[in-house]
Amino acid sequence: MALVVVKFGGTSVGDVARIANAAAKVAAEVKRGNKIAVVVSAMSGVTDQLLGYCHQISSRPDRREQDAVVSSGEQVTAGLMAIALQSQGLQARSWQGWQVPLRTDAAHTKARIVTLETDGLRQRIEDGEVAVMAGFQGVTEDGSIATLGRGGSDTSAVALAAALKADRCDIYTDVDGIYTTDPRIVPAARKLHRVTSEEMLELASLGAKVLQTRSVEMAMRYRVPVQVLSTFDAAIGSDFPGTLMTDEDPTMEQQTVTGIAYSRHEAKLTLVGVEDHPGAAAAVFGPLAKAGISVGMIVQTASASEDDRTTDITFTVPRGEADHATHVLDEARASLRYGALRADKNVAKISIVGLGMRSHPGVAAMLFETLAARGINIQAIETSEISLGVLIAEEYTELALRALHTAYGLDAVESSREG
Length: 419
Ligand code: ASP
Ligand code: MG
Prior knowledge:
This protein is α/β, with parallel strands linked by helices. It has 13 helices and 20 strands. Helices cover 32% and strands 24% of the residues.
């Protein structure tokens, strides 16, 4: 017998037929002898619709009241799910955030969880009832409803699993797991059976898009095994059909590179001819930080010669903030003194990710050689302990992904397509 927190995302509860399908999965888990707490999102599209109403009335709606409105989506699904479970012959009841209670800070629309008191809920589960908690919402110290930010139901689910010390948190969604890379681009991409939370965070474009990043960080901190699986497959969580995100496992290190992520959300800015003296970088990045623009990769070249006292600084910013960044640097030009500012939005970042990279030399060389053989130029490089990212021209994204997927031995072989 296991205690499992089962979370259903918006598409999994998109209409009443799907709620019934989700309830059937819970019933199957209970039949296997498991104790279940369910966490639900709003029906797909509902949160956007509710937000839309708020913004039709005011361009800057009061955040407390906005939370009162948007949290109702999850209230509805929690009740419907409890009814659907009862129709399956199970004992079930819904729990709103304030009823649990899941306490948050007062940062409306992006609140953080402070505590989750599960004594009451746990008692009912032990007595054989399925608990259905509304995701995304909690209650502040002054009794207001607060929401946890878009995608926050994932965080609600992992937090509940941590508080209940559940054996696992199964997240039912519309994808069947995390892949070695985007299968729409690389047909030979494989579903990963296991991935560590560290890798999951680095595989942002593949994985963290599936789960709210905060939920991955929380799973890491509280060591909650999280499985991502499809709500549209016949298998249930206890069959382990999806990708299990779990703590470091020695066997995982055998695979050097686990997956390859990419991002087309970057832009490259280059400041040419910046006066090279202590404080130059601070003068560039200070104003950007003040403007709330986060900088990704940074490359600074040395002065060309002893008497050339200038340098070039290249860095990336989110593509949507490139114009803002350009404006900020234009404004600072008088004090910064640089020759020219160039912006290039046609770039992509490719990142190879793997826990095994820590201990395997030659991973970087393989990356550079593979790209060089395809005539792909590397414009900037970024490293972490378990990832290596390169910036290339956007038009080569697909070519680079396919070539690297093969080079690192990630391609599915016919016989293991199923696996
Ligand atoms: N319903 C909320 C949203 O759409 C929370 C969630 O589904 O995770 O962002
Ligand atoms: Mg989601």
